[in-house]
What we know:
There is one protein chain. By secondary structure, the chain is of the alpha/beta class. It folds into 3 domains: 3-139, no CATH class; 165-248 and 338-490, Rossmann fold (3-Layer(aba) Sandwich), CATH 3.40.50; 262-324, no CATH class. It contains 15 helices and 19 strands. The protein has helices at 17-20, 80-87, 132-139, 165-171, 183-196, 262-267, 274-291, 297-306, 313-324, 335-338, 354-373, 400-409, 429-432, 446-455, 463-468, and strands at residues 28-33, 40-45, 54-59, 63-76, 96-108, 114-115, 126-129, 148-154, 160-164, 173-176, 200-205, 237-241, 251-252, 344-348, 380-384, 415-421, 437-440, 474-478, 486-490. The strands form 2 sheets. It has a 12-stranded mixed beta sheet with strand order 9-8-19-18-17-10-16-15-11-14-12-13. The chain has a 6-stranded antiparallel beta barrel with strand order 1-2-5-4-3-7. Helix 8 packs antiparallel against helix 9 and helix 11 runs parallel beside helix 12. The chain starts with 16 loop residues before the first helix and ends in a 17-residue tail after the last strand. The relative contact order is 0.14. It binds adenosine-5'-triphosphate (ATP) and magnesium ion. Magnesium ion binds at residues 183-184, 499.
Amino acid sequence: MDYHDETIEDSSTYYSEEAGQQEDTSGIVGIIYGDVGTNELKCSVTAPLQKGEYVQIPHEEVGMVLGQVDSMERKTDLSDDKALLMSQGEMMDIKEKVLAKISILGYRDERGLLQNPNVPFKAGSPVMRASEDLIINVIGIKHNEKTGAYIGMLMGHDIKIHLDINDMVSKHVSILAKTGGGKSYITGVLVEELLKHDVTVMIIDPHGEYSSVRDPGTSSEFNSAFGVTPRGYPDQIIEFSANTKINKDAKPLRFTMSNLEARDILALTKVKNIRQALPALKKVLEMIKANKPTFSLKDVIRTIEAQEDSNNAQLIQELNYLDEIQIFAERGTKLDELVQKGKMTILNMKGTEPDIAELIVNRVTTSLFEMRKINAIPPMLLVVDEAVNYCPQQGTTACSKIMRTIAAEGRKFGLGMVIITQRAAKIDKNVLSQCGTQIILKITNPLDLKAVISSVEGLTTGTTEEIQQLPLGIAIVCGAGLQVPLFVRVRPRESRHGGETVKIIED
Length: 507
Ligand SMILES: Nc1ncnc2c1ncn2[C@@H]1O[C@H](COP(=O)(O)OP(=O)(O)OP(=O)(O)O)[C@@H](O)[C@H]1O
Ligand SMILES: [Mg+2]
């Protein structure tokens, strides 16, 4: 029977808006009707219920079974003609009923395995609000505060969701959403949890948004069911930047010239005549290296100038520009200054040219990887915001290779990655596909949606619509030790969020 064709009965026997205001203490939210399956059933709703909510249904053979509201429909007898009359002020008596489609998630058998009943449920059986214990048990939510990062609560329920930190380090994480979707906000939540657990973190921060983790936040949701109180992390943040003129709280980030090849240096300049400049620079570097183990960019410039070759004018000009931004120095920033156990290092790229940022990310992440191989730094997570800048699907950057290497091999050496992007379709698939945990917020671009659906296990094309409609603050979380994708209400930030959307008019 197709329930769309049913006749509408008296609304008093069904859930109506007024009746819905009274909480049903029995926990019953509906009654099974129509043709019933083992994976799916329909229920006539008698108490407030929402799409996505978990329900439990007694099954005569296997006991309580967990289900989830897949879709809901309010059926009414208001025809378009009557609606027109209503718009002209006429009163109408509207009969209505609310129907829901429930998909069955299953139950745990005596061995603890997730099973679905083999025999359909009985029509007329009650559908109840699911108990927290059943939800936790069936969908396998682990409450391990010692190894878990508390990121929020299960949508519609007061159940805290923890992501396994060891799992994140060993299998990487992707955070995917359109611009303004809340990626940086939830990254802040994640970072707070990592710091609370003394996990070492480095974050590539394109806009200097994460320095505010030092300060306590001002969320309106403090003291709510989330149980979050304001807190800053001033003692656990170290900040570096190549541009300390605008990032005044950051320490300067400097590199030595010694490992740099002529080609690497030229890649940072806008020198046009590479054919002429490359051999010239190579020769000069060889000359200097033969005399001095450490040298500065100034030494290189002086040596080229001494040759008095007019062909080198542009090269000198470009090297002077590099020298002005002071990224190279005789003494570079040491890795043990840059990475400290239990602290978060912010590489603040605000005010740093993209090609210089690529060079920085390449050099720093290459050292992280090498140092983790020999256990010279603690196991850690590398968080890459706006990762398209560093590992795009099309074209290469200075760090494409190292990003792929860490994605593929980082797990062996305790170097996890969190990849954050607005454009899932534009990120190197080799990197994205290595992420075992996905945090998905609202995405609307069809290409990005396609990339997400095809790269994440457990997501069906039916989820596409849900991802498009996710409200701000709700995330779909997959992986991280979870058995099914979960809708999570992101917890408020303890610390201040530095990426507030700028309003043109204050309200
Ligand atoms: N869970 C949340 N609760 C409350 N406010 C939120 C939440 N998530 C995001 N916001 C707000 O939404 C706005 C955009 O969030 P955010 O800066 O995290 O977006 P984004 O995805 O990082 O965007 P972009 O791609 O432009 O960097 C911010 O003003 C932030 O305060
Ligand atoms: Mg952001």
